[in-house]
Amino acid sequence: MSLVSILLYSIVTLWLVITLLAQHSRFQSVINRFNGLHIIPRWTFFAPNPGVRDYHLVIRDRCRDGRLTDWKSVPVYPSRPKFAYLWNPQKRASKILTDAIQAIKLLLKRDDVGPSGLPFTVPYLLLLHYAAHAVQPEPDAAEFQIAIIEATGHLERNLECSFLSSFHSRW
Amino acid sequence: MVTEGMADIALCLVITKTLLAAWALLSAAEWFVNLHLFRSDGLLTWNILRLRPRLVIPASIRHRVHAESAVIAVLVCRIVAGLLLLIPYPNHADLPCSLLILLSCFYMSRRTWFGGDGSDQMGMVIAAGLAIISAGLVLDDINVTASGVLAISGQAVLAYFVAGAAKVVSPVWRDGKALPGVMKTRTYGHSLAAGFAADRPGFCKFVCWLTIGTEMLFPLVLLAPPGVAIASLCCFALFHFSNAYFMGLNAFVWPFLATYPAVMLANSAVRGWMGWA
């Protein structure tokens, strides 16, 4: 057996062992520190908690006279195409929204972040920035606020607001 | 014996690289449709993502490396590499093309941060494994190719087993509520399936346990007689096609099916070691 093949066998075996360890929450924080390129995959698809909600982003403005506008839907992704089993580019935007919202939920539970630290985190700023640019402000809007709406059902939609941001300056 | 082994590996390479090419072309094309996400007002704007910690690229070139034009260049490279992989075997471009796709996977996962899924992870695994197999064929070293086969088959076995194990510890999966729950969403669900599952809790529990059981038993494919192993892999392929149809997980089909030739080679090796061949 050549030196190259011994080296490759060792690297591949190590990769598989670390991948197995990375599936357990106990090792994830350590492994994530060295997994910037996502070389170590996570294979826990739709488990233990499958996504049973759709996420939507909504925005409203507070005008200079203190009046609040109606909530407006922030367009993130169109509905799934009919031939999604072949071609489904929409899934990227919906997955980005889902990932960012999941990250916000985790950050809210962290002692070192929580509601007070959340506005300084990247997932929060990402959604805030996107919503502010995706929906035109009212002419006399001074501030805006975003909310995350969770929904389920196809014909009859059950909606629930799971997060409400603070007000932020429009300008 | 070694020549026969190399012929099997060459066949494995041909099937695997064709499926990897299909995934590379599909994923790059779907990202092209989503280029607006990378613009200054997009969901993946670098204006915000540059604020995250542990960025390795030097600050002086960071903005250029992560600009929309750089994303386009990387995706074009992925498409070219995917097309070159379709050149019939023997193809000297296999090694550089699989490495190029691997690098594009690293770049996209760093650049996007959010939005990646299991198909991207398995695409990366296939590209890495294929690069090693191609290197082994270039060097005419069967042990190098075998380590590439180990990488792909090992990750495939882990992927299915872990997916099943993560479900079996979940009460939502064990009591069958996961299926109607997911089907009721517009993101990953299907209105017809949701309607069918709504009044059939027994059926939902059966499907959830079938998924858990088959995923956890996937490692047995390595021990099964070749005919049974091929039949099992056909069933898993059907599972991925049904996920594509009902859940819109179209990109999962190609990289997961691309692992099957390596799994069959691993089956042959394991059965050989056991003296069952």
From TrEMBL, chain A:
Highest rank taxon of the organism: Bacteria
The protein's name: Uncharacterized protein
Source organism (scientific name): Nitrosospira multiformis
From TrEMBL, chain B:
Keyword Transmembrane helix: yes
Domain of life of the organism encoding this protein: Bacteria
Keyword list, A-Z: Membrane, Transmembrane, Transmembrane helix
Transmembrane segments: 7-25, 70-87, 122-139, 145-169, 217-239, 245-266
Protein name: HTTM domain-containing protein
